[in-house]
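Final report, results section. Input specification for complex C-07:
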Amino acid sequence: MKNKRQGKILELISLHDIGTQEMLMEKLRDSGFDVTQATISRDIRELKLARVVTGKGSYKYLPPNVSESTVSVKFNGALTESIISVDSAVNIVVIKTYPGLAQAVATGIDAVENSMIVGCIAGDDTIMVVTRDEKSAAVVSQNIKKMIKTV
Amino acid sequence: MKNKRQGKILELISLHDIGTQEMLMEKLRDSGFDVTQATISRDIRELKLARVVTGKGSYKYLPPNVSESTVSVKFNGALTESIISVDSAVNIVVIKTYPGLAQAVATGIDAVENSMIVGCIAGDDTIMVVTRDEKSAAVVSQNIKKMIKTV
DNA sequence: GAATAAACCGCATAAATATTCATTTTGTTA
DNA sequence: TAACAAAATGAATATTTATGCGGTTTATTC
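Structure output:
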């Protein structure tokens, strides 16, 4: 029963915008699954669902996605050692590397997928990272600097 | 104050595993931001953070996932079929393509001359289009997305 | 089938988060 | 600067979510 119910939960949240466990409970009951909020809370933990803020400012459950796995990805030491300097202006972070290594480092930055980073482009020894806003640029720049230091 | 604080929040959640707003409140206070849980709740909504279940079964705040705001499409048009996603930040539009195709697509974008576009450069799989201002970036980004969809 | 253990789940409640309302702070215009 | 409007915030509280505990069901082994 539990498996079917959890399958139904995944189906429901992908079909509708469901913002609370109570709302989910009602939908589940419509589908013949008569459970309490407590059980749904446990299901959500087991399914590793995320509760996110939508564009409209309301809340919504989402299936597990890249967000979790991507965050754990870290730079490896070799890459951070190729970085000479990091600087930022407005919403752009500029990273200088030793000649020919920019592509490799940029690949690493792409791997550390981060919602603050819109995208990045690399030449031979320079990388430009476009971030969502000025604030993000500062954070990203600072994070990269920290990574350099800890290596 | 609010902006700095929210920037700090982004920094804190990217550096530590923060599972509750109360925990975040303590870290913020350590950093000199003396605010209440209520304010943090509002910040979280504004920053569109997500609360996700970690691998260990605990909870954790994360920045919003890129995939939410990124349009990823696969289509069968001449140039547009090589485009994976379009996004923008401030006055820059970033277009991701399949590997090696960025140059070709960029040539197409240059061809579609537009007074809003200052210029663009292309790497291997990423194009950056610099526009006059923020509004232009939104328009250009929107137009490209439409081109992808209508093909 | 009986005995035992493990998983499941509801109830009640604790813990965490969101929101209302009143106040203060900040920004704007004259 | 004064007067006003808008934004930001805290305190209290409502709402939502997580969990301890005990009962029940399910699975396993004899």
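Chain B touches chain A through 41 residues (CB under 8 Å). Chain B has two domains: 2-62, 80-150. This concludes the modelling results for the funded period.
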